[in-house]
């Protein structure tokens, strides 16, 4: 079985300060990991993905994440928050084909709401 | 980039009626589409996986007779909520994937807000 835990339900930062959204995963297989962002009443937009290539992944809007197998983590960071970053962020894991019946299914974390103060 | 649309974006209906939601991949062929449900302030819950030309695979606890899914073409999947009740009110999101035999990225639609009165 696979699971994803986002360690913070809410994160609040000031504009211009760094952002850290934490994600830990559990998987019996080598997973692919994604971060999605959802603005209110909108669909999900892919920020970045890890698929067993480089462990440091750069995404859109200045976000990046580092896959650390030893820590089973895939934390999302951004050096300087912008007001437009305020949204909900989801860490997502997907199993490869070897994952059996769970192959191809996305498992979502609980979500982290990011608030950015002026 | 790959674009997925949903129609309608919002729908309000009376209890007991049926509502159909469409999910279209606009610029690619989607062999597999997924339907999710999102409760307020909650994460997305996968309802079913739909492969073109075959029956949908429903997740445990999802009533297949209540949530009818049809994936008649490579660019269109529909979700019909039959005999809707207020507890079916939710945000429904579809996603589409290019290839059946890979775990490629899923592209998400903008969602449909269903309110059942």
Brief summary:
Chain A has strands at 3-6, 10-14, 19-21, 23-26, 32-38, 44-50, 56-58, 64-68, 73-78, 87-94, 106-108, 112-117. By secondary structure, chain A is mostly beta strands. In chain A, the strands form 3 sheets. In chain A, strands 2, 5, 6, 10, 11 and 12 form a 6-stranded mixed beta sheet that branches.
Could you describe the 3D structure shown?
The complex is a heterodimer of chains A (118) and B (117). Chain A has 118 residues and is an all-beta fold. Chain A has no helices and twelve strands. In chain A, strand 7 and strand 8 form a beta hairpin. Chain A is globular and about 40 Å long. In chain B, strands 2, 4, 5, 6, 9, 10 and 11 form a seven-stranded mixed sheet that branches. A four-stranded antiparallel sheet of chain B has the order 1-3-8-7, with no helix packed on it. The radius of gyration of chain B is 13 Å and the shape is globular. Chain B starts with a strand and ends with a strand. At the A-B interface, strand 5 and strand 6 of A face strand 5, strand 9 and strand 10 of B.
List keywords for this structure.
heterodimer, A: 118 residues, mainly beta, 6-stranded mixed sheet, B: 117 residues, 7-stranded mixed sheet, 52% strand, globular
Strand composition percent of chain B: over 45%
Q: Would you count the extended β strands of chain B for me?
A: 11
Structural class of chain A: mainly beta
What is the assembly state of the chains in this entry? Answer: heterodimer
Number of helices of chain B: 0
Average predicted local confidence, pLDDT of chain A = 88
Query: Tally the helices of chain A: what do you get?
Result: 0
From the alpha-carbon coordinates, what is the Rg of chain A to the nearest angstrom? 14 Å
């Amino acid at each position: 079985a696979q699971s994803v835990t986002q360690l913070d339900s809410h994160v609040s930062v000031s504009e211009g300060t760094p952002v850290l959204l934490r994600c830990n995963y559990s998987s019996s297989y080598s997973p692919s990991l994604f971060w999605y962002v959802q603005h209110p009443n909108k669909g999900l937009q892919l920020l970045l993905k890890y698929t067993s290539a480089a462990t440091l992944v750069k995404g859109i809007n200045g976000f990046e994440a580092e896959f650390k197998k030893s820590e089973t983590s895939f934390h999302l960071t951004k050096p300087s928050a912008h007001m437009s970053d305020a949204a909900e962020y989801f860490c997502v894991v997907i199993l490869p084909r070897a994952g059996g019946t769970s192959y191809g299914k996305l498992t979502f974390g609980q979500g982290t709401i990011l608030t950015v103060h002026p | 980039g790959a674009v997925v649309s949903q129609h309608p974006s919002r729908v309000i209906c009376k209890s007991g009626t049926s509502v159909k939601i469409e999910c279209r991949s606009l610029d690619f062929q989607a062999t597999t589409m997924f339907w999710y449900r999102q409760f307020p302030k909650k994460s997305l819950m996968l309802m079913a996986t739909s492969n073109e030309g075959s029956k949908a695979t429903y997740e445990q606890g999802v009533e297949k007779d209540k949530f009818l899914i049809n994936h008649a073409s490579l660019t269109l999947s529909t979700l019909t909520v039959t005999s809707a009740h207020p507890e079916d009110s939710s945000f429904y999101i579809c996603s589409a994937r290019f290839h059946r035999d890979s775990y490629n990225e899923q592209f998400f639609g903008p969602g449909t807000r269903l309110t059942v009165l």
